Amino acid sequence: MSRGMHGRRGVVNVDRKLDKDVLKRLLKFTLKNNKIQLFIVIIAISISSVVSVISSLFMKTLIDDYITPLTLQSNPNYAPLKQALSIMFMIYIFGIFFNFLYQKILIKVSNGTLRKIRDDSFEHMQTLPIKYFDTNPHGEIMSVYTNDIDTLRQLLSQSIPSLFSSIITLTSIFISMVTLSIPLTLVSLFMVGIMNLALQWIMKKSKKYYIAQQSNLGKENGYIEEMMEGVKVVKVFNYEEEAINNFEKLNDNLFHSSFNANKYSTILMPIMGNLGNISYVLSAAIGGYLAIKLNSLTIGTLASFLTLNKSFTMPISQISQQFNSVIMAMAGAERIFKLLDEESEINDGKVVLVNVKDVNGQLVECEQCTNVWAWKHPDHDGKERLVLLKGDVRFHDVTFGYVPEKVVLKNINLYAEPGQKLAFVGATGAGKTTITNLINRFYDIQEGSITYDGIDVKLINKNDLRRSLGIVLQDTNLFSGTIKENIMYAKHDASDDEVLNAAKLANAHGFIMQLEHGYDTIISSDGSPLSQGQKQLLSIARAALANSPVLILDEATSSIDSRTEKIVQEGMDKLMSGRTTFVIAHRLSTIKNSNVIMVLDNGEIIERGDHQSLLKEKGTYYKLYTGLLEND
Prior knowledge:
Elements: H1 2-9, H2 16-31, H3 35-72, H4 79-125, H5 130-135, H6 138-180, H7 182-229, H8 231-236, H9 240-292, H10 299-340, E1 352-359, E2 362-365, E3 373-378, E4 384-388, E5 393-400, E6 409-416, E7 421-426, H11 432-439, E8 447-452, E9 455-456, H12 462-467, E10 469-473, E11 481-482, H13 483-487, H14 496-505, H15 509-514, E12 522-523, H16 532-546, E13 550-554, H17 562-576, E14 580-584, E15 596-601, E16 604-609, H18 611-617, H19 620-626
Parallel strand pairs: 7-14, 7-15, 10-13, 13-14
Antiparallel strand pairs: 1-2, 1-3, 3-4, 5-6, 5-8, 8-9, 11-12, 15-16
């Protein structure tokens, strides 16, 4: 699935209007909490830009009013020249101060904006449905937080300020050039037109390659992550050579897009620089003619204009140089905003879970934890009623497909009364895990209904619904931190005694105490240095701490050996006691004591009953149990 999705996510809209919209949104995002700072930055950039223009204009005054008269004096008086130079020195210091000021503010603003983008992206990601993570490669999602957000750093701290500074400088220089010499200004504008044509041609060529570079980088990161996660599979099946070949293809794509993007980026500056030099030479030649032959320009005016001409082409070169960074940042920003624009999981349920206690035979809501729960159900008349949480789960003619055109479950009817243990068996793809995904509303059904203690699950707030469910999965997800912290994922405010009791209930306390640091032992995100069985016991301890009335056990013992399975199974048996439990079984020996066993095939329940009754039928379950039919 990952490689298939790469191709779809690699298609990026390069429409110019979209770029403007993305840039506008990014600027709005930056302005949101930095209006005062950015106002100071604009003023500081403007002052710094004007100072550079004033220095060029001063060249005319310096030559015509100070240096030329001094050459005609027998006893030159340098005092006025020193005074003028002193004033210019103070102006330069003034400009340096404001340049330093806006650079310092921008560092804080840009890094603060990136922090806010990361915070908002991660916060929004927590609200996305499971479907988003099932259909998007995790490596590409990670690329948004690393490569894409990092491309914004130069945009915010350098490119946009440089572009604004260049615009202010160009405007000031153009006005100054017009006041000095209109004919020479027309010559400069003619060369600017040529430079603009060259810039447009190069931008058109490089734009698509910079966008492709960001996309290819995300694909490569995604593939690397896949290979790292599946390194054991790669080695077991001698897939190294094929993996290398696939990576080389992705890396070649990245090389070509990066090469072409940087190729045009590299030729841009020499072309713009040489066109600027040609403009300077033409202005010098024509200006010299006007000054010497027609005597319509002073030497100071020509010198000042030539300085302005050089300054006029330099901002254009800066704009062209920064444009590549803008393109790359826009590609990254587009992917960032695509993540932020993903629709959050809808959670409009009004029925919530509350603690209750019995007062004279009546349920009464209370704040303290009583380990007795009830659904607080608002009725149409505005009143609220409390429905005791028992764990009665029922499916009524449920039909579901992950995509509309492919049905996974067909007309499923089942019920689990409080405290019952229901087991699902069947071949891979029969729909076993899908049923549990529907109970906790990772996905919503297309037809039928699912009720929980008589309440349609669509009416229940998803957070409260999932709080009432304890889940132990085949693939144990642990996180970097201590063993205690991993167990406490189920209850953040749990006391040490609660954690201890949960671990004992799960048969995990024994091996934990044998570790050097006990419950404070640090483990990595993959559970190292624990064994698979030990990791599974921690997962059971986490579910025990949640103390949920309904349990979902998704092939929780399929990846461990028989000896470890016995220890794990004992922990699960304690956990299941008195709870409604849904078990997806790989080893049929673990579900013999289930109240009801359901055999699924192609999304339908084809057999149901307890262990003995199903054996007597000698159908699919009998064949699975006796080994006549393989249970995948």
